[in-house]
Amino acid sequence: MNAVEQKLNRSIKIEEISGDSDKSQKGSALFLKILSFLSPLFLLLIWEVLAKLNAIDVRLFSSPSRIFAALLPLISSGELLYHTLISAGRILLGFIAGAVPGVILGLSMGLFPPVRALLMPLVAVTFPIPKLAIMPLILIIFGLGETSKIFTIAIGVFYLVLINTMAGVLNIDPIYMDVARSFGANRIQFYTTVALPGALPMIFAGLKLGMGTALLLIVAAELSAARAGVGWMIWRAYDMFDIEKMFCALIVLAFLGYIFSYFLDFIEKVVIPWKNS
Amino acid sequence: MNTNTEAIRAENLTKIFKTRRSEVVALENVNLSVKDGEFLCLLGPSGCGKSTLLRILAGLEKQTYGKVYLKAKNTEKPLTAVVFQGDSIFPWMKVIDNVEYGLRIRGVPARERREIALKYLKLMGLEKFADLYPPQLSGGMKQRINVARAFASDPEILLMDEPFGALDEQNRLILQQELLRIWEGSGKTTVFITHSIDEALLLGDRIVVMTAQPGRIKAILDVGMERPRDILSIKSSPKFVKLYREIWEYLREEVLKARNFTGSGGK
User: Fold this and answer.
1) What is the extent of the structural domain holding B114?
2) pLDDT of residue B261
């Protein structure tokens, strides 16, 4: 800790003394990086120390070392990977099944007032219904197989993408529409050259929100009638009172969330190159 | 007037905007004729319906009464292209793709339209920026792309709605010079909206002065200065000063009148 403190102090000093703003900026950037790297480690450390001192009940809260000990065999046996891949597959399929119609309908609703007038009341009425509340209905309709799980995720993603896409189109500066019209763009050209690219930033905002919802819904969807998946692992661990395994599944969920959002960020940069340029 | 040399004719053009409470007459009985290859400037106080007239000519707005005729010599070419007032360059397309836009909409093959677009980018001194995205460019550069986009689509008629209105003085001078150079090489029929007397005199063959709301035609003046024009020598010529005074007399009345209206129509 002492060394770290010294390091921190030094970088603060650099900032104070140096008249060269470039140097001090580098110094403070480094300082911030160190801070964000240290905070999770620090939390883990406190957790472990509290567990070792018996200040918290390890049967309920476990400890980093116990979780790590449970994690290794789960990884080496391939069990964790198996469940992770199953859940990731469901999320991906549900995500696509929800996002694609969401974008298409959202574009139409944004571009054409009659379509908006027709569908908006339906969307407004059904959107606030918690997706978890219709899970039993989904199970009855689609049965206990994969379809019901994918559908649950799809419906959650669908609404968020739809609403964001529509808002994205409605927020496009009308002058761009005028440009397209003045050059005589037809309907398809209008979609591809103005509506879609103009709404892309908002569409991605919707996709990111949808990804969060998908992670939430996978756990709920795998609660009922699943035999595998990270969500199933959590509920299984609950039944067996296997807290360490439960934490391992939570780590996987956090990891999945990170990977997916990283992936979305990457696609966003490729698809919307003008945004950060 | 001989209709063969006429590119635009507007007859008794009236535009009324209806809101729930009131009706605003933006244009009233506008009769206008623009000759083939002429550069016509529309000059008037803010809110006099200049933009509305241009939007009707561009087909973006429908007149309430009256008729508009635009002559198409070549049906292959688009009838009009508009240079809009604000920032209308698509931020999601590279500079070169923006310039190609009109050609792309018309279905010109990719290689051919790239060639044309590059030609106009070069004319505008923007070839270095072809592969950049507009958010990286300044306002003056964006308006240059805007002008290049309109010229590249090679329309029968060019419509420009205060294209340099938002630029600073220096940029405006440079762009006016560039526009003159490109335009004089093209000979396209052009309707150019401005609220600057200077600009109208520098660019136009004729100047149409419009009244304050409702927009009517108050006077039409022949500029009659030879081309190719040089901005600086025009500005110092006695003719320029004389016309400037004349136009200002017309405009002053209208601007004072416009002050008595609370609302303003256009931007």
Assistant:
1) 91-155
2) 59
Q: Which residue has the higher pLDDT, B166 or A38?
A: A38
Residue B115 has pLDDT above 90, yes or no: yes
Distance from CA of A186 to the nearest CA of B (A): 8
Q: Does residue A154 register a pLDDT over 90? A: yes
Segment B130-165, tens digit of pLDDT: 999 999 898 889 999 999 999 999 999 999 999 998
The amino acid that residue A236 corresponds to is R
Flag whether pLDDT at A46 surpasses 90. yes
Side chain identity, residue B127: E
In Å, how far are B17, B18, B51, B213 from B21, measured between CA atoms?
Answer: 11, 8, 23, 18
Q: Which of A172, A176, A178, A182 to mutate to test the interface with B (most CBs of B within 10 A)?
A: A182
CA separation for the pair B38, B189 (Å, rounded): 5
**Residue B101 forms contact with A (CB below 8 Å):** yes
DSSP letter at B106 equals T
Residue B57 lies in a domain: yes
Q: Do A178 and B60 touch (CB under 8 A)?
A: yes
* Distance of residue B130 Cα from the nearest chain A Cα, in angstroms: 14
Whether residue B1 has pLDDT greater than 60? no
- Does domain A73-271 fall under CATH 1.10.1040.50? My reply is no
How many domains is chain B partitioned into structurally? Answer: 2
Q: Compare CB distances from B102 to A183, A274, A275 and report the shortest one's residue.
A: A183
Mean pLDDT of B113-138: 92
Q: Does A180 touch chain B (CB under 8 A)?
A: yes
Q: With CB atoms and an 8 Å threshold, state whether A178 touches B132.
A: no
**pLDDT value for A270:** 92
From chain A, the residues in CB contact with B80 under 8 A are 182
Which residue of chain A is at minimal alpha-carbon distance from B103? A183
Whether B17 has its CB under 8 Å from any CB of chain A: the answer is no
Residues B160 and B61 both lie in one domain: yes
Looking at the fold, whether B171 and B112 belong to one and the same domain comes out as no
Residues B255 and B146 in one domain: no
pLDDT digits (tens, 9 = 90+) for A191-214: 899 999 999 999 999 999 999 999
**Residue A75 token pair:** 């990884």
| Burial of A140 (C-beta count, 10 Å sphere; 0-12/13-18/19+) | exposed
**Closest CB to B133 among A181, A198, A274:** A274
* Neighbouring residues of A191: CB distance < 8 A, sequence distance ≥ 6: A107, A111
